[in-house]
Write a structure and sequence with these properties.
16 helices, about 300 residues, mainly alpha
Length: about 300
């Protein structure tokens, strides 16, 4: 079976991937950073605490799917608002089910089961905080000025999104979802210390790039609990090619996130008021819709 045949389901999955990527741009009042950054820090905290990698990967991926429509409404918010654990889980599962129809059926079942396992964790390791503060360079090319986009995503945004995409894409290439999740989460460890100058900067680093990346990554791995560090050392070489199924899931996730991010900025730059008013029905149906329409008409809007 060719790779193109195995990726037949990708087109159907892509709109959901775009929605999941929007967690980079959604924030809540109760915590700093985007929802993706919060999930990135929580996933690292859970792994460092010693929680099973499969439970972390599946539950955080399930939570990301539920966030597509529920945004920052999570179990903690719902419990604080008076819902029981069972009621909160019911809401989260409704959000999950609303968009999960395009997922591989077996994976969707595993994710549904894991969704209630998402939980608050102790403080994340410093590397997660650093990657959440470290901006991504965006699109750069040797010899050309950088294209500046605002606001830039962080490495935490990118790594969490690639981890989730990798888990969701895994069934298409016959991979277990846990491995591409871990590779996605950890594939930019060196950027905890190395500011991102993009491909243009990598070209200028030249022959020094592999050593710089290796030294900085080894430093971050050495600071982790030995068992977790050993697991990451085992899976991170999958970045080096796209031969193994887990490698293919990771690299597909990585390139899709990079390109979908560029598409987001292109859409944002081209956004018009008529899209909000007409296509998205900003002045939506309701008891005061006619009054709102009159106000806008009188204001010349």
């Amino acid at each position: 079976m060719t790779l193109a045949t195995r990726l037949d389901g990708l087109a159907a999955l892509r709109p959901l991937l775009g929605e999941l990527g929007d967690a980079k741009r959604v924030r809540v009042a109760s915590a700093p950073g985007s929802l993706a950054e919060q999930a990135f820090a929580r996933a690292w905290a859970r792994l460092v605490e010693g929680e099973d990698a499969e439970a972390v990967a599946l539950s955080e991926t399930a939570a990301a799917v539920a966030r597509a429509r529920l945004a920052g409404i999570d179990a903690e918010v719902l419990r604080d608002a008076g819902l029981s654990d069972r009621e909160a889980s019911g809401v989260l599962l409704r959000g999950f089910d609303e968009v999960a129809g395009v997922l591989d059926a077996d994976l969707a079942d595993r994710l549904r089961t894991a969704l209630p396992l998402v939980r608050a964790a102790p403080a994340a390791p410093e590397l997660a905080a650093l990657l959440n503060r470290q901006p991504r360079a965006g699109a750069t090319c040797p010899g050309l000025p950088r294209i500046m986009v605002e606001p830039p995503e962080s490495h935490g945004d990118h790594c969490l999104t690639v981890a989730v995409y990798g888990a969701l894409l895994a069934p298409l290439v016959g991979a277990d979802p846990v491995v591409p999740f871990l590779v996605g989460l950890a594939h930019h460890l060196h950027n905890a210390a190395l500011p991102d100058a993009g491909f243009a900067g990598e070209v200028l680093l030249g022959e020094h790039l592999p050593r710089v990346m290796a030294v900085l990554e080894a430093r971050e791995l050495a600071a982790l609990p030995p068992r977790l560090a050993d697991r990451l050392r085992e899976v991170l070489p999958l970045r080096d090619d796209a031969e193994a199924p887990a490698s293919q899931a990771f690299h597909a996730a990585d390139v899709l996130d990079r390109v979908l991010q560029v598409h987001h900025h292109a859409r944002a730059a081209a956004f018009t008021a008529s899209q909000a008013l007409d296509d998205l029905q900003l002045v939506h149906e309701g008891p005061v819709q006619s009054f709102h329409a009159s106000v806008l008409s009188c204001a010349g809007l």
